[in-house]
Amino acid sequence: MPSTPEETIRRLLDLMLAKDTDAVAGLWAEDGIAEFPFAAGNSPRLLTGRAEIRAYLGRLPELMDMREIPSFTVHHTEHPDTLVVEFTGTGSTVRTGEPYRLDYIVVLTVQDGLITRYRDYWSPLATASAAGSLPELLDALRSESVR
């Protein structure tokens, strides 16, 4: 089990590359949260607890086949349990087979070796495009604007 926040995010990314989303979810505290402040359409903005996170992560390999993390930068904060991490994921879209490149900024808080808070600032448009689901996202956004 990783003990520092940097070891935890490196382990998380290694497990994502290995497509072991169950083990990724195991890095969260039982009551840990995952936040996606820029989420749009049908994507959740907040997941609470390891079980919700596990269910969410379990769907990712059906959408995107991440194969490499070519860029990874860690920024330490004044709080030793919190990091800001910038990374890039590349791979292919499962639906289309097309290559993708996605950039992420994550604010990660780890206590007692487990993630208690994970804030992922990803682009919904870039992610939907990479996953081959941009038309569905645009439809969901249009439906929201009609309400």
Total discrete domains: 1
How does CATH name the architecture? Answer: Roll
Helix count, DSSP H or I runs of 4 or more residues: 5
Q: Into which percent range does the helicity of residues fall?
A: 25-40%
**Roughly how many Å is the radius of gyration?**
15 Å
For the biggest sheet, the summary is: 6 strands, mixed
Structural class, from helix and strand content?
alpha+beta
Q: What is the H/E order?
A: HHEEHEEEEHH
CATH fold naming: Nuclear Transport Factor 2, Chain: A
Q: How many strands appear in the DSSP assignment?
A: 6
Describe the strand arrangement of the main beta sheet, using strand numbers: 2-1-6-5-4-3
User: How would the global form be characterised?
Assistant: globular
Q: Please mark out the parts with pLDDT under 50 across 5 or more consecutive residues, or reply none.
A: none
CATH hierarchy class name: Alpha Beta
Describe the structure.
- The protein is of the alpha+beta class.
- It has one domain: Nuclear Transport Factor 2, Chain: A (Roll), CATH 3.10.450.
- 33% of the residues lie in helices and 38% in strands.
- It is built from five helices and six strands, in the order ααββαββββαα.
- The protein has helices spanning 5-17, 21-25, 50-58, 124-131, 134-146; strands at residues 28-35, 46-48, 64-76, 82-93, 99-111, 114-120.
- It has a six-stranded mixed β-sheet with strand order 2-1-6-5-4-3.
- A hairpin with a 5-residue loop joins β3 and β4 (82-93).
- α4 (124-131) packs across α5.
- The chain is globular, with a radius of gyration of 15 Å.
- The chain starts with a helix and ends with a helix.
- The mean pLDDT is 90.
